[in-house]
Amino acid sequence: MLQQVWGYPAFRGPQEGIVRHVIAGGSGLVLMPTGGGKSLCYQVPALCRPGLAVVVSPLIALMQDQVAALQQLGVAAAALHSGLEPAAAKATWRQVQAGSLDLLYVSPERLLGGDLLAQLASLPAPEPLALFAIDEAHCVSQWGHDFRPEYIQLGVLAERFPAVPRLALTATADPRTRAEIIERLRLEEGQVFLASFDRPNIRYLLRAKEQPGRQLQAFLAEHRGEAGIVYARSRSRVDQLARELQAAGFDAVAYHAGLGAEQRSAALQRFRNEAAVVVVATIAFGMGIDKPDVRFVAHVDLPKSLEAYYQETGRAGRDGLPAVAWMLHGAGDIPQLRRFIDDSAAPEEQKRIEHGKLEALIAYSEAAGCRRQVLLRHFGEALAEPCGNCDGCLEPQALADLTVPAQKLLSAVVRTGQRFGGAHLVDVLLGGDTEKIRQFGHRELSVHGIGRELDRSQWRTLVRQLSSLRYLVPVPDGKGGLQLGPQELVRPLLRGETVLELPLPPPQKESRRRSSSGSDRSQELVEDAANGELLQALKSWRREQARAQGVPPYVVFHDRTLVELAARRPRDRAALGGISGIGAAKLERYGEGLLAVLLGQET
Length: 603
Fold this sequence. Notes:
The chain is α/β, with parallel strands linked by helices. The protein has 29 helices and 17 strands.
C-alpha cells in the first residue's frame, strides 16, 4: 500500500511497527517530530482496514491540506468542518453513508456536537469504522500551550466504540503531557510509540537581541526566494514588522487573529500557493499549515515555552531538506514573560508549572554548549554527542569567570538607585557621557567607567544572563528598570562566595562577522539540483498544475520529489515510478507531463 499509493519504497523509523499494530486492531499514542511522518501511521491502516477512518484535527487549514493531498493520491477523503457550505456538508455525509469514503476529517467540535457520533454508530455493518485518529493530541493538556477544551471530551470514544482502534498523535509532549493524554483519552491499554524528537535537518541559531528589525532583515536577506515564518509576540508588532519588511522589498504578509477573515484567508492562500512568501505571525496563533518547503522559522521574541518553540520551529523543513530556526533573545523578554504568568488569572498550580516551563526555555536560550542536547533533554531524550548543527556547536564560546564584572554590574544597579534599565547601566560602566548620565549626576559615581574590560555587546550579554539567573529582576513599575534579585542569591555573589562562570562572546571588534544564519546547504544533491534549469522547469510545471486544480504546489509534489527527479532524470514511466513520492495515481495523472519536461519537450 505504501509503495502503490504514496510511492515510498520503505517506512521510516517506527512507522511500520505502528501501522502493523493499528491494522491488527491495537490502540496507542504516537510521539513523533513534525515532518516525521505521523500521518502515514493512520492513513495506511485506514486503507488496509475495512470501513471508514475518522481523523480528528483541530485546524481547518490542516484538514484541507491533508484531504487535498490524499485526493491527489487517488484516496477517497473528505472533511466536515464549520467552513463548509451546508450543501457540501450534506454531500460529504451522503458519501459516508454510501461507504464510498476511506477517510473523514472532522474537528473535535463537529464530532462531539450534534448527533455525529450517533450517526457514525448507526452506519451499516459490517465493519463500519476502521479507526479513530486523534491528531495534535497535546491539545488535551490543560497545562499545555495549545489547550482545546473539546479534546478532553474525546475520551468518550473509548466508551462508544470500544472495538474500534484509537490512535493519538502529537509532536510536542513532555512526560507530564504524555501521561495526561493517555489518561484523558483512555489509552491505558494502548501502546506508546516514541520516535526521536530530533530534527537533524534544522539548524538552531540564537542571537542576542540588539536591533531586532535590522537583524531580522539581515537574516531574511540571506534567505531571499525562500518561504518562511517570522513569529512576534503581539499583533501590533506583527503589523509593524510586516510593514517594515514590505518597505525593505520582502514579500511579507501579516497573519494574526485580529485581522479580518478575508485578510487571514488571503495571507494563508498566498503562503500555501507561492514559493517565497514570508508570513509574520503572532506566536500565540497556530498556522496549522502542512507546507513542507518552509526553509526558515524566525522568532524576534522568546516564545512561551520550549514546547511552543519546538512546535513552531518544527514547521521548518518538513520535507527533510536543510532549514534554519533563528531566534533573537534579550534581557527584556524574560521579565515580560514572567509578568504574563504572574498577572494571569490561572490557578497557582498552573502558574507554578508555567514558571517551570519558562525556566527550561531560559536554560535553553542561555546554554553554553549544544542547543539540541538541551532541547532533546527537555523531552526526555539524550543526544550522546553534540549535534554540530547549532550555534552552540558552530560558534562555541568558552566559559569565563565573570564574578568581578557581575559584582560591578550589581554595584552599578545599587549606586544608580535600582531604577534604570540595562542600556543606561552599561553606559555608566563604560564611562559614557550621555544626556541621562549628566542629568542624574552619574559621572560622579564610583562605578562610572569601571567596566572597560568588557565591550558594550559583552556587557549587554551579562545583563541578559544575570536577568535570566534572577540576580537582576524588573522594577515592579513596568518601566523597564532593574533591581537586585533575592538577597539570598545576590549577597554571596557580592561577597565573592559565589564564582560565576558564564559563556562570553568575543569582543565585537575582534570577532569576524559570521553569516547570521550559518546555513551552508551542505547536501550536494540539493545544491546541484537547486541551481539547475531543470529543477526550475519542474517547479514551473508544478505551479501550472497546482493553479489549474486550485491546490498548493506542494500538494502536487514535494520539493524533495522534484529534486530527485532533477538529479536522476528518469526517461520513461518505469523509471518515474521508482522516484520517491510518485505512487500509482500520480504516475497515471502526471507521468506524461513530467516526462515532457524531463526530456525537454513542450507540455
